[in-house]
Structure formats: C-alpha cells, structure tokens
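__Record contents__

***
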Amino acid sequence: MTVAPPRSAGISARHPLAPLTVAETGTAAKLALAATGDGARLVYVTLAEPEKADVLGWDGTPLPRAALAVTYERSKRLTWMITVSLDENAVTARVPVPGARPPIMMEEFTATGERIRDDPAFQAALARRGITDMSRVQVDTWPASNFGLDVDKTGRRLARGVPYLLDGPGSNPYAKPVENLLAIWDMDTSEMVELQDGDIVPVPAAPCRYDAASFPAARTLAPLEILQPDGPGFTVDDGWLRWGPWQLRITMHPIEGLVLHEVSYVAGERVRPVLYRASMAEMVVPYGSASLSHWWKSTFDAGDVGLGKMANSLELGCDCLGEIVYLDTVAVSEDGDAAPLKNAICLHEEDYGILWKHADPLNGVAETRRSRRMVVSFVATVGNYDYGFYWYFYLDGTIQAEVKLTGIIQTQAVAPGTRVPYANPVTPELAGPHHQHMFCYRLDMCLDGPANSVYEVDAVPVPAGPANPYGNSFTAEATLLATESSAQRLAAPEKARYWKIVNHGVRNAVGEPVAYKLVPSHASAPLLAQPSAAITARAAFATKHLWVTPYAAAERHPAGDFPYQHPGGAGLPEWTAADRPVTDTDIVLWHTVGVTHFCRPEDFPVMPVEYAGFTLKPFGFFDTNPAIDLTAPSGSHCHLLERRHP
C-alpha cells in the first residue's frame, strides 16, 4: 500500500478513492437516468472503485474515474446497473439485472404509507376498530421480505404496511399500534395485493411521549466541556484522514454507509497497511414473534434500504461532543438531483483514560501515559431504530468497531393484564417482540501486504499429568483455517476464542509472523431462527460469526447485491460453495456481531443505547509496545512517587 502523494507536492489528480462530489454525483445520476429510459427512477449512485491493484500501485497519475448507478424501470419491473465515466461524461456500461428488486426508495417510504392509508378496504378495516379520522393514522412502510408464499412468487415488487394512531403534534406513534392489521402493497402498480385483518386489540391509551416538552421538570447536570485550545490533533483532506500514527481514507456508500479505505499505521518513514477496505456490509433485524403484525419483520437495513441513504445530518453537542470536524456527503433524489448532506460524518478525538501505567513504590517512581482515540462515526435512522456506527483508532495500534443501537422498539398492543408469546411487556398495554440485530462487517485485510492467513485460537486446559503436574496449565491451540468451508466459525467465549490474521512473509523481532487478532467485543448469539426458516436462507451470513473468502472485487455484500425479496442463497453461501483456499493470499474476513433483544420496560418509550462490535488488536505486529514513546502528561507529577520501604 502506497502513501498518497499530497496534492501540495504538485499532484493535481484526486486520489482514486476520493469521494464523489455533488457535481459528479448529479452528472452520473442524470446520465444514468437518461440511459435507462422514460419513467426511470434513480435508486443510488456510488463511486465505481478502481481495481485494487491500481489503487495500491497509484503513483499520482490520474486513473479513470467512474460512478456506478442503480436505476429502476417500474413499467418493466427491471433493475439496471449503469457505469458512467466521469472523465468523459458518458455511459460506458449498461447492464440489466433481471429478477433483481432494488432497495426501497426514499420517495416510496412516504408515498406507499399514504396510499395504503387511503385505500378503501384499509379504511374499512380501521373503521371496524373505531378509527375514522385518517389524519391521525400513520402507516409505516416495510420491505416485504420473502417467505416462499404465493404472494412472493408473483414477481411483484412488494412492501408491507402497518398502521399506528397519532394523538397530536409530538406524538409517539409506537405507543399506539393498531394491532393485527397488515397491508401487502405493490409499489410499482400502487395497488393492494392482500389485506390481512385479524382480531381486534384495543389501541393503547397512554401517550408514552419522549419529547422535551413532555418533561418540563427535566433533570439537569453540570456542564461538561471538552476543549482543545490548539484545535483538533488530526487533518483531513478530500477524505484522507491523518491522526497520530494512523492514516486512512473515508467515504460514504449509499448501501454500506461509512467505508474506510487503506487503513495504515505509520511508524516513522514506514507505512504499514492493516486493512484495504472495511465496512458494515449488511445487517438484518429478524423478529421472533408469531403474531400477524410482526412475524414477517426481517429487514436488511443495508441492502433493503441503504444505510448511507438514511444518514443523519449531525448536530454539535447532541450527536458529537468536543472539537469536531464534520464531513459532508451527497444526497441524491430519485429524479437525479444531487445536493450536499451536511455534517454526515463526525471526526473527533476522545480521551480514553489510562493507556499504560506502572508504579514502582520500592524505587519511588511511576510512569503513566494517557490514552486517546480517533473517532470516525455516522448515524443512520431506519424506521423506528437509530444506529450509530463508530470506528475507533488507538495509539497502541488497536482498531475497534462499535454499533450503538437506540431509537424506539417495535411494539405490540396487548389487552391490559395479558401476556403474549415471544414478547415482553414494556407497559401495561404494550409488549416488545423478541428480535435480533445482526451486523456483518466486511474486512478486506492487507496486513503488511495482501498475502494473509487466518488461525482460530482457543484457550485449552492441559490434561493433568507429566506435562501439567500441578493441574494449572493451559495453552493456546491454533488451527489454520485453510479453506472457505473450514473458515465458517462460531465464537466461543468459554474458550476465549479469537481469530489471528497473520502474514507469514513478514516476521517480527521474535521470529514470528506479524499478526492482528480479531476479538468479538460483545458475545452475541448467531441467528436463532430454525434452519428451515426463510430468513435463515436469506441471511445465511448471520448463522456464523466468521467467514473467510479469497478477495474478489464483485463479492461485496454478504446477502448478495439485491437482497430485497430475494428467496435466499445469494452472497456468502453461494461464493463459499466453491470451497476456495484462503491461506497466504488476499483474503476478506466477514465478521457478524449482534444483539439479541428481549425488551425491557426500560427500553420504552426510547431505548437507551445497546452496543455491539469487535476489536482488531495487534498481536506481534509490533516488536514492542508502540505507545512506549508517548510524551508524559505535561504539568503533572504522575511520574513521581514517594519511596516506600518494607
């Protein structure tokens, strides 16, 4: 991996992975729509990333710059992938994808809900429940999923709609679900395909609001200010971030959201690559309920919707605190109009307590160094849930990924005093259905170069005997994951299991291959649905915590490029069927982490943050503690200690 030459050194070309500008996005969108035909809609536009070898070998000479657009022809129910040359302002490839259903578009979220609400049969079902004022009805649009039912075999592009009752400005719709009423809607023809009208459950009465106006006597805390008088300790230029020993590139992908490229640790003049590309490539939220309004909920928030498309515009003091630098991204409409999305990515430093310390009372000395971390984050809101995606970079070479889950849980109306299966009560009138949040990270490794391998390492007790005379010994048992089939693994916290990524061609000071270890930060269950369930086929990536594949440029999304209503089998299960070797080669790790959510009363009306994530930690990548040479805290006496004598 090369260091990008600074443009100030006479290089006028932008880096091949530099983010699309507003102008580039708009140009690509309009050209793609024109190439698709009358009535076409733009689903998304993203940078068409150059070949990996070309990026790694880039010397500052301009590379061809292109964008990839996905468009949709409703009249033909046809999805297109269109490549646009940004150098020539021309379409260079136009590929139809028969049978693929693209992610739901932003215009469809609102329009579909409104059309379902206005449907006469739907209104009649609401009237049966005593609801006649349609201005008080909100219908949430959901991706339809696919369960192999007759309605799934029609070839229609479907959505499901569920209603909620509003009680005025600032209302919390999820406090008043209209239970057992479900619409299945054709988004292309704008017609009701099926209306499911079950038993009537009273709409809950309590408003359960969470807005500030509802708490006039709110608790207050003393102000907390984070100051950096000299400004932030990092620089960012056209997506290129440099902080302390780290350098990396940042882009926003409409489906994956935040993407990191060419992540490297810089030690003096030596630039050491760790990751070529890293992102949260897919996620799914499967529900475990059997009720009419909930059993089918299993949205792929990335592939069905698009995390980058749902990115928030962040606010100082609310979403980020401290000396903040924001990066804008680009929002583009279905008509192809592009505009800046302000403050979509947040960059800042955080104090993180003690990095290392030792006190030596006998000799009267002590040394302490404080830790800080570089934070790169964004927040996406998908329906009722809000997800904060964070990457942390530490001074000791550690990389951490974390998801912060908050927002409002899905709710099920219940008759007061009753319990429903597969859900926990959160108020006397509401239950929260059991569900999971599963996040699959794609880690394109480049550990001191592209030839990498993976070992699974378990802590194993040594049997009592001559090799363990005192019964206290244990060892680390390492198993090489040689092929794709052998590299489909589950976490095992009882064995302190981690996965060690090594480069056999580069050795450290003790003669071992340089390495990083991948450690799940939060123990999480794999997908809990039965093997025969539809979601198990559609979200096979979530049945394992780890998959390893050889690098292939087209293998980007673990459930396939177009999971919307896909019957399953795409992505990782399809690719790994070849059982390719994955040793001493360019490899990609797919790591699934998650939260199994049994809802609590404390999760409503707004859920406090839950966490999921993992850590990549150097394991012999350095010859010694890389943070040993940090400056001691200034203006302090923490390096002095009163000498003590026994």
Residues 483 and 581 are 4 Å apart (CA to CA). The longest strand covers residues 338-360. DSSP finds seven helices and 30 strands in the chain. Confidence is low (pLDDT under 50) at residues 1-12.
